[in-house]
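call fold(seq) -> tokens
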Amino acid sequence: EYTYDQDSALFGTSYSDVYDNAIRRVDDLVGQLLFTLGDRGDLERTLIVITSDHGEAFHERGFEGHARQVYPESTEVPLIVSLPFMLEPGVVIDSRSANIDIWPTVFDILGLGVPPPLGGVSQLPTILAHANREDPGKDDRQAVAHLDRRWGQPKSEAPGSVQDTVAVVEGPFRLVRVPQPSGEFRDRLFDSRRDAGSELENVIEEHPEVAER
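ret:
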């Protein structure tokens, strides 16, 4: 599932080691691309965007992989943007964006406007605000991750079975709705202020009104 070669096989053979080997290979390939752009004199006028469609679970909750759950280890990914013709490097932004924001941001950076059908919100104002040490304002949008867990499966589940899992993030709270074998759902609520970076403690009994909303 994760590709690496002899040069990037620097770690072991466990699941996480193979993943690290693959990350090293991708890093080498991205490096080759950037060096080639630099040699051609194009790097300083090129917009570069690096992100991912999902993260990966490594037994944070007892399972590995992706495409089965929408916990933060699977849904939270970095968004790296290089704007050498517009900004100095080193701007770090910790506010949340969404994958649907990427194309509106690219179009906005290039001065092309944002085509309405794209959806999403340009993150350029937020980027510029952080670069200029200004207040970017508060983004109250909800972030939603939805996954049909039958995706990629050779056979569908029995008729009537529920396989959709959804996460809704608003401010510090994340509600995750997980289908159960019985066909019902189990809701879990996490507060990133409680255990930032992991969100392992279910606080739904402490904040039932948040979960209900």
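The first strand starts at residue 48 and ends at 50.
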